[in-house]
Design a protein that fits this description.
Helices cover 35% and strands 20% of the residues. By secondary structure, the protein is α+β, with helices and mostly antiparallel strands. The protein is globular, with a radius of gyration of 21 Å.
Length: 289
């Protein structure tokens, strides 16, 4: 199977500034948060965004963190996903996904400009973050020639697409037994719910492995990763809390619940990277065996 191919007809919708402003208004902050010192070089993400567009990086999604601190919401962490459609390269497809550049920044000191390699899965419209020793994260501090450094970093990150396709191909060739799939899902759920080893997670491995569409059915590591990633990030699984008594002795009856979608930038990034590393670890174990 060739997972690295040209997709000239594939176009995910480019977002206008008006749409981006609704999704993540802190992109357009007019100055840095008052907590920043004079050493902080303020370059608005909107200016970086304009420069990225000129280079062929097209914004296709954006999110913003929430803040409980009064006055910080307009400066908080935000994340933009870009497709690369530059004139000097092809628009590429990796298996059933499109490689993306993921830019994270804030204007309140909680983040540098950070560039990561991501994947956007066309089947489920779900975003993934790539993280193992082969793929580097590029960080640009808020000083110096920020725009030039971000552009250079963007090309450095997106140039890893061919290596990414090779990794996806390897994941697609690894077949897992049902027990191995359950082990992978169990570890992923522990990460999602921060459950200590030996304790039961609210959602079972079988629920996390359940395909949401026919294209997801299969025993490869790639399909297992995608099913589990969508389950832990998107949520939607039903479970019942156990009956218990509080410290005061009050009886609490079982309650039907549904897992929520992960919406926070930090939690989403952390989970995505951990899941990719989990898949990489499984690949290495299978290769050694």
């Amino acid at each position: 199977m060739n997972t690295f191919s040209q997709v000239s007809s594939l176009k995910l919708s480019a977002l206008t500034d008006d749409v981006l402003r609704m999704k993540a208004p802190s992109i357009f902050a007019e100055h840095a948060h008052e907590s920043r010192s004079e050493r902080y070089t303020y370059i608005p993400t909107a200016e970086i965004l304009a420069g990225m567009r000129r280079e062929g990086f097209i914004p296709v999604n954006a999110i913003q963190s929430r803040s409980r601190i009064p006055g910080k919401a307009a400066f908080t962490k935000h994340q933009i996903r870009f497709n690369y459609e530059g004139a000097d390269t092809r628009l590429l497809k990796v298996g059933d996904s499109v490689p993306q550049l993921v830019l994270t920044n804030s204007h309140d000191g909680t983040s540098t400009y950070q560039l990561d390699l991501g994947l956007f899965r066309l089947i489920c419209l779900n975003g993934m973050m790539v993280a193992d020793k082969q793929f580097s994260t590029f960080k640009v501090p808020h000083k110096g020639d920020i725009l030039r450094n971000v552009i250079e970093g963007s090309y450095s990150v997106i140039s890893q697409t061919e290596q990414l396709a090779e990794r996806v191909e390897q994941f697609s060739q690894v077949r897992l037994t049902h027990q191995e799939q359950a082990l992978f899902a169990t570890e992923a759920l522990r990460l999602r719910f921060d459950t200590p080893e030996g304790e039961q997670t609210p959602v079972t491995a079988e629920q996390a492995l359940r395909p949401r569409r026919s294209q997801d059915a299969g025993d490869t590591l790639w399909l297992t990763l995608n099913r589990v990633q969508e389950s832990v990030i998107r949520g939607g699984q039903r479970y019942t809390t156990p009956a218990h008594r509080t410290e005061e002795g009050r009886y609490v009856a079982p309650k039907r619940m549904t897992t929520r979608e992960v919406q926070g930038i930090d939690q989403g990034n952390s989970l995505n990277r951990a899941l990719w590393r989990l898949a990489e670890g499984m690949r290495e174990l299978k290769a050694a065996a």
